Amino acid sequence: MRKTMILKILGFILTSLIIIGCDMSYKEAVVPVDALTPVIIGQPSGGSIDTETEQSFTMTVTADSIDGDESENIITYQWYSYTRYTEYENHTGKLIQGATDTSYTASFTGEGIYHFYVIVTNSNRNATGRKNISIRSEPVTVVVNDSKNARYPIITKQPTGGQPTGGIEVFLGPNMTVDQLEVIVDTGENTEGGSSYQWNITYQWYESTTPTNDSGALIESGTIKSFNPTGRIQELNELGDYYYFVVVTNTDYNVTGRRVSSVVSNPVFIRVSRNPNAAIPEITDQPSGEIYFIGDQVIPLMVTAESIDGGTLSYQWYSNTTSSNKNGTEIQGATARSYTPAINTDNTDTNERYYYYVIVTNTNTYAANPTSTVNSKAVELIVISPSTDALKNPNATISIDLNEKY
């Protein structure tokens, strides 16, 4: 017994020492804090040079960090070149050795079209999570011309309808709308003294299902600087990713060398998806209640509604025993936007009240859930008997809901 008691006391002392020696307080988990993405304030710009007068072109990017002071952040730069747009899209451009400043001067030995971009990195030594965060500039194009050949067009504004790489999303359907795509080309005609070169600019738009501007399906109607792909996508009537780009061509018959020179725009990404739900129809004009006297002709109830997604509207009228637009009785055959109630306005000794409403359904077969409905308000129709007709009985009383529209 005494031995057992001693063991219990020793166990209690040991447990107490363990508890005292441990920090049992609750501590919240530390959430790592990443360095912030640097902000490109000024994107690098491309341009055009002539091999006879210039052999280099300088591009400059302006960037800033927004998390902390300069002692905590280091902004670095790395320039890349690429030949195909997919290399830009996939971040597989060729690293240019030594091109690690805000500006990069590219040297050229011959005519051609050259593409570049720069990666800007923010390094924050005080970050507890990712210490290095990078952002990529927009693509830059430099064209190098030879006076013996037709000059390359200069695209000063790439086609957009969303971000070239981020893209935009539209829902397939009869009312779908895609922003117009447009490219702007500089021919030097707006500069002082105009242009001394022959310019004959033509356009040809293409469509691809991959992020490339190397090849695609020619769009016969896409032969001007702007193109709206809405009709084209509706014609295809298929979900998926679409890429649109334009080939801009200059033809000069006065040169002694190559008479045709072309440049290709960046592709614009458009994702065509299925709308998850048909749009709820909008009732723009509710049916109205009425007061009838004996012998009056019943006029039709009417509802006006719209489908905002191009769906098809259908109607079903209901009767009810209370002023509610739910749990009514379906009226067989009452499936138009108007309905003439079958109420009794013949001679009767009591006041009669009737309640009706309509459910409007929008059906959009392009949506995953193809139908959506909305209930009209419940309307009240009152038939007043001769015994309570105020014109015939001065002592009659009529109960009317002042909030109801008659």
Descriptive account of the structure:
The longest helix has 20 residues, at 2-21. It contains 3 helices and 30 strands. Strand 25 (312-320) and strand 26 form a beta hairpin. With 406 residues, it is mostly beta strands. The protein is 8% helix and 38% strand. The radius of gyration is 37 Å and the shape is elongated. The strands form 9 sheets. Strands 2, 5, 6, 8, 9 and 10 form a 6-stranded mixed β-sheet that branches. Strands 12, 15, 16, 18, 19 and 20 form a 6-stranded mixed β-sheet that branches. It folds into 3 domains: 33-146, Immunoglobulin-like, CATH 2.60.40; 148-273, Immunoglobulin-like (Sandwich); 282-388, Immunoglobulin-like, CATH 2.60.40.10.
List keywords for this structure.
single chain; 406 residues; mainly beta; Immunoglobulin-like; 3 domains; 6-stranded mixed beta sheet
Question: Layout of SSEs?
Answer:
Layout: H1 2-21, E1 39-42, E2 47-50, E3 56-60, E4 62-64, E5 73-82, H2 85-89, E6 94-95, E7 103-107, E8 112-124, E9 132-136, E10 140-145, E11 154-157, E12 168-171, E13 181-182, E14 184-186, E15 201-208, E16 217-218, E17 226-227, H3 230-236, E18 240-251, E19 260-264, E20 268-273, E21 282-285, E22 290-293, E23 301-302, E24 304-306, E25 312-320, E26 329-330, E27 338-339, E28 352-363, E29 371-375, E30 379-384
Parallel strand pairs: 2-10, 12-20, 22-30
Antiparallel strand pairs: 1-4, 3-7, 5-6, 5-8, 8-9, 8-10, 11-14, 13-17, 15-16, 15-18, 18-19, 18-20, 21-24, 23-27, 25-26, 25-28, 28-29, 28-30
